[in-house]
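2024-03-11 09:14:02 DEBUG pipeline.ingest accepted 1 chain
2024-03-11 09:14:02 DEBUG pipeline.ingest length=324
2024-03-11 09:14:03 DEBUG pipeline.predict start
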Amino acid sequence: MSDGPVRLGWWLSSEEHDPRRLVEQAVLAERSGFSTAMISDHLLPWVRSQAHAGHVWTTIGAIAQAADTLEVGSGVTAMIHRSHPINVAHAAATAAILLEGRFFLGVGTGERLNEQPFGRRWPPAGERRERLQEAIDAIREVWQGDNVNLRGKRWRVENLRLLERPASPPPIHVAVSGKRSAAMAGGRGDGIIAVTPDVRLVDAFHGAGGVGPCIGQVHVSLATTIEAALDNAWEHWPNGTVAPALLTELARPEHFEAAAEVAGRDAVRHGVVCATDAAPVVSAINRFVGAGYDTVYLHQVGPDQRRLADLASGELLPHYRGGR
């Protein structure tokens, strides 16, 4: 059993699905009882077999028109070369208006995969954290609606007054992987997003003054047999075998494919919960709960999204609402 109330969310994988299918999945999530969804923001898929990487802000706009009550957030948007804080502030403000306040901005330090096409230097982690911290400050200032002039170390804004703004600015949740980024999120963000149930990240966030949600992500592969689940995970999410230290450093989908081949098919179990029923998924969620996370997004790998919807509506959502 879980230790307390947990909010479950639906993860929309832009790398695996056509934008039209993502809109359909958002509606499916809402009808299945989910109140929140997060959508990945990629320029390229992790591996070529995933075959998709639609423009996230266009897709969010379409979801806003199709879903009635679902909260939606970006998971996550980086500001290195591909996106400037002005563009992100503008897009996020418009998304928050279209979703009538049901939007949050997820931000992070990015992956080389999505920045390499711009032909510019890939900065080290410390510099990327500086860029992100300065970008968050710039976005918040732009959202205030005053005329903004900034001359930062990494970003500049000149004579901008953003006119299209929601009544209240959306929250900013920061993707974290270590104590430095978690502490920065505590001082600058409204919550954290993590892919591992690491209590040290939660502690660092709270220790730096953070009071918002602590969000986790669980990749699952649900099928009729464990072998089928493993096959599905290996076919559609082989990047789940790639060591975390490499995830931000590899530049092309082919590089992720090569790293996955070295790790081998069975290693995908370390990154994806392969299951036929709810029990292993509950165990994975509870590892986040035990580490202090209050929100967990579920990502069903592959095309069979209905299987997650059925399991969630029938078992997972009632379980975490105290239904059993």
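2024-03-11 09:14:41 DEBUG pipeline.report The first strand starts at residue 7 and ends at 12.
2024-03-11 09:14:41 DEBUG pipeline.predict end
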